[in-house]
Amino acid sequence: MDERRFDDLARTLGASNSRRTVLKGLFAGVAGGVIGLFGGGGALASNDGNGHGNGNSGDNGHGNGNDNGHGNGNSKKSDCCPDSAPRLCDNHCVNFRSDASNCGGCGNICPSGTSCQSGTCVATGCTPGASQPCGSAVGACVPGTQMCQANGTWGPCEGGTSPQPETCNGFDDDCNGVIDDVDPASLANDPFNCGACGTVCVGVNSTPACVNGQCTVGSCNNGFLDCNDDPSDGCEVNINTDPSNCGGCGIACPSGSVCVAGTCQSVDCPDSGNLCIDDVVVDGVCTHPFKGSGTICGVSMLCDGAGNCVLHL
């Protein structure tokens, strides 16, 4: 060790006020001597707080617990801690950015009603364990309860009845203060609520339908047809027996015939031989109505209206 390096070492030792500094100075002096012996000619390392030498300076480094390795005795980055909690405080791995008990540094506890966000205690608006009502009390809705969680934020609303899609049932399902204000589109094809809640389509001899909010005939029962296009009377014609619509709308049977199982058939109506009685087919049935009173039934003979032919003088 040359004279200049010895003087530097002496000054360092004399100016130091801690054993740590003395040891660092001794180490730096010895290292400098070794380097000098081998011709390196380097300067003495100094204690600048992060292990970098400047050749002749004293111990001017002070720990502050930040990320460059300087410590305050109980905070440092540890290779044994996970990335999610990279700091070591009293032998526990913590995350200064989110740990409410070590927010921004070891032992920095966030007050009640705050949480640790990015290393800073921030007011959250609720105290863990507190509760408040939530939801709605309008219509069919029932309020629930909301609890403040450990991180100071309100949890989900639980225990209540939330709004539901509105239906035609006499209740305010969606809790907007209006009963049965359903979407008009949902009433366009509902035969039980056709165009408006409570409008029920009724079918006569048919199955009703709702089309664009109007009641109509969906399908006719077997043997019936809607021949007048009036949905109010459904399928009004029995095509198996109606001689005016025999087998289909507008198919009329000839006079003196009847409609049987949708087919026109002649009816045999034998002559009674009474001139005061008609022998006619009415609605497919052979009938014998009396002829009117005064109907001529022979020479000086008239019908009396009761089926009798009497002398008229």
Describe the structure.
The chain has 313 residues and is of the alpha+beta class. Among the domains are: 62 residues; 52 residues, no CATH class; 44 residues, no CATH class. A hairpin with a 5-residue loop joins strand 17 and strand 18. Helix 1 packs antiparallel against helix 2. The termini are far apart.
Helices and strands, with pairings:
Layout lengths: L2 H13 L3 H19 L37 E3 L9 E3 L2 E3 L19 E4 L2 E4 L7 E4 L9 E4 L58 E6 L2 E7 L3 E2 L11 E2 L18 E4 L2 E4 L13 E3 L2 E3 L8 E3 L2 E3 L5 E3 L2
Helix pairs in contact: 1-2
What is this entry, summarized?
With 313 residues, the protein is α+β, with helices and mostly antiparallel strands. Helices cover 10% and strands 21% of the residues. The model is unreliable at 1-7 and 12-74 (pLDDT under 50).
Question: What key attributes describe this structure?
Answer:
single chain; 313 residues; alpha+beta; 3-stranded antiparallel sheet; 18 strands; rod-shaped; disordered N terminus
